[in-house]
Structures are given as structure tokens and as C-alpha cells.
Amino acid sequence: MSLDLKGKGINTRVTHAGENPDSVHGSVGVPIYQTSTFKFRDADHGARCFSGDEKGYIYTRIGNPTINTFEEAVTELEHGFGGIATASGMAAVTAAYMTYLGAGSHMVGTDAVYGSSRMVMENDFSRFGAEYSFVDTANLDEVRKAMRPNTKLLYIETPANPTIKLTDIAACAEIAHEHGAVLVVDNTFMSPILQNPLTLGADIVLHSITKFINGHTDVVGGVLIAKTEEEFNRLKAVINNTGGTMDPHQSWLVLRGMRTLSLRVQRGEENAQKLAEYLEAHSKIEWVRYPGLQSHPQHDLAKRQMKGFGSMISFGVVGGVESGKTVLNNVKIPQLAVSLGGYESLIQHPASMTHHNIPEAERIEAGITDGLMRLSVGTEDVEDLQADLEQALALI
Ligand code: LCS
Question: 118 an active-site residue?
């Protein structure tokens, strides 16, 4: 029997969600069902599993106990109806686009989304006749103006990668629903610990699990969580047929990583708040963007829709991109690498790395300037991180 998590706190829920000790040997950890297919008792049983008259595993692309355990756990944390784990975050983004868009339909998206989330739309879905408008969704007037009669999908990322701009989720849910569109929210930067878009009116929430949820920089993965059975079934049908699903070993790893999510998020956030304040006061720093700073233009929205401010900081160094690169090349604790949300600090330069594939004019218009540096703050001792940044900034 799994524990009833109703009314339990987030730390209890992240520790026990999806837990269901196996009935054969009682193993507390979920077993890895490393199998591609499942044997039917007889021909009628197989037919009933396919028709849905009986619940039963069929084939791992369609369902697998290890994968389902992870899906149930993350769905519990996001307050959804059901979740579908995918091979990567981009497989989740692609599945969302594929489910809600077709020839002649239109999407409105956040302009400063993760580079590939924008480029897969502009380069690939456009070839199938889907239309798009990427706008500054922090400005609700721009969102309203961009909506058309054929808009089927409002797709937002908040905080956005890498500008750390926020979008008002509840207001966007209202706008989307007035137009008969669905609202999909990429919640990667917050994780289910700090923001729950489904409780604010979104229809679908997605994550690159590669980041905070797995948290150990050793797995690529994604997940989509639907608020209703209807949306879950629509997504599931597309993913089962197109095949961007997660595998059992990957699911076992991400579930293991997720058990410590709230501890890592808490520590990363404490560190990030201190570092953001330190950077803001530093003479070599031109600007800092972190939702926990009073200076963040949407600090009030952050307090309203998020349960914490996260551990992603972007900043610009006096002297622009060259000075920024001096910091990147000389810090010793944050590693110079893309990705984010792991136990370790990482630093990178979006204009030439994660967002290099966005045409320059679109990139600059979205606020991803050449001088923007992005820091993912890990669980190290903050004094060590600060001393390290200090010695690198002193070289400018
Ligand atoms: N959504 C967001 C907000 C992301 O940051 C990423 C990847 C994705 C979706 C795609 O997920 P993936 O397929 O990589 O699991 N962001 C990356 C980044 O900022 N650095 O490296 C990858």
C-alpha cells in the first residue's frame, strides 16, 4: 500500500510520492523493469489490455512499471491528473507542439525560451504549416495582441531562459482560455518545489528533467503533466505513437535524483540569494537579474506565483562580453558548461552557447544580449563561491 499523501507537506511528498514497495520481495526502492515487452496470460488477456478493458502492461513504449512510478511521483508534485516521461526535455516540448498544432493553426510563445524550443517551431513545425508569434509574454498586452482566431497554444517559459523574465501564469491561463487555446508552461527553472502552474490555471506543465528534477548532471530526460484526463489522453496518444518516451533505467535514475529535490532546491536558493546580492553590490558588475532581488522588475509577481526565487542568476559585467568571458574563463568552482539545475554550479554564455541558434536580431530583441552571462548556483558553500567570483572579477 502506498502512503496517502493528501495534505502532507512538500518534503514528505517528494520523499514518498509514487512509492509502492513491490509486492513480491518488498523492495523499498523501485525495481528496474528492464524489459521491452510483457507476456500476456492468454490471447483474450492481450486483447483486453489493448482495448483498455483490463489494465496491464503491453510494451515499454506504451507503459512500464518503473517509468510509471516516476510519472506518478512527479504528477503528485505538480498536482496533475497524469504525467508522461519523455526521452529529453525537447521531446516533451516537441510532443506538446505536435499535440496542439497542425497546418493552419497558430501558437504564441515566450520570445526568450530555451533556444531549441523556439527553433524547432521556426525551422521544423513551420514546414508543416503551423504559424507562430514569439513575443515578450512578460507584457500581457503583447500576449493579447498576438492571439488570433486560429491560436491553439499559448506556450510560456517562466522564469525564461536565460533572461529570468517572468510571465504571469494565471493571467495567461485566462487569455488562453478566452481564445479556446491551451496554456503550456515550461516550469524547468522552478521545479515542482517552487512553482505549480497547474494550480494557477495552466493545462499542461513540462520540465526538462535533465535539470533540477534529476539534479545530478548524469541523465537527459523530460516530462509532461496534464491537469485533466482529456489532455492527458491527447498527449499520451501522440507520444505513444511518435515514441519519444523515457526508458526504465533512465526513469529509475531520475526518480532517485528527485528524492532529494527539495533539499537541493532549498540550498541552491539560499546560495543564489546571497550571491545575487553580492554581485549587485560589486563595482565590476553592471546589472544582475534574480527574482529574489528588490531590483527585479517583477519581484512582486515572483512573490505571488512562486514559492521561492530559485537558483538561476543572469548578470552583465562592466566592459561587456569580453569582461564576462574573463569571469567565465577564470572561475574555478562553477564549471564552464551548459545545462543547469544540478548539484554543482555551472556558468555559461547564452549568446554563443545555449541560444546561439536564434538569429541575432531575434535574440537581441528577446533580451539575450551579448553581455549576458548565466550562472546556475549549486549546493557548494556560498563563501567559497563568492571568493571564487571575487578573484575572477578582480582580473578585469
Ligand atoms: N526547457 C528549458 C527551460 C531548458 O532550459 C531546456 C534545456 C529544455 C527545455 C530542453 O531540455 P533537454 O532536452 O535539454 O532536456 N536547456 C539547456 C540549457 O540551458 N543548457 O543546456 C540545455
Answer: no
Q: What is the dihedral of CA 135, 136, 139, 144, to 10 degrees?
A: 10
Domain end marker among 258, 289, 310? 258
Of 342, 347, 100, residue with least CA distance to 206: 100
Q: Which tens digit of pLDDT belongs to each residue from 158-173?
A: 999 999 999 999 999 9
Q: Which domain holds residue 53?
A: 10-258
pLDDT digits (tens, 9 = 90+) for 193-219: 999 999 999 999 999 999 999 999 999
Q: How far apart are CA 105 and CA 122, in angstroms?
A: 14
> Under 8 Å CB-to-CB from 47, ≥6 apart: which residues?
none
Going from the Cα of 222 to the center of ligand 1, the distance in angstroms, rounded, reads 9
Helices (H), the chain: 10-16, 43-51, 65-78, 89-100, 115-119, 140-146, 169-178, 191-194, 229-242, 248-258, 261-280, 299-305, 320-330, 360-365, 382-393
Residue 338 has pLDDT above 70, yes or no: yes
Q: Per the domain annotation, does 3 fall within a domain?
A: no
Q: Are 288 and 279 in contact (CB under 8 A)?
A: yes
* Ligand 1 pocket, residue 215 CB under 6 Å: no
CA of 73 to the centre of ligand 1 (A): 21
Q: Are residues 44 and 178 in the same domain?
A: yes
2 part of a folded domain: no
Residues 335, 234 share a domain: no
Together in a domain, 371 and 297: yes
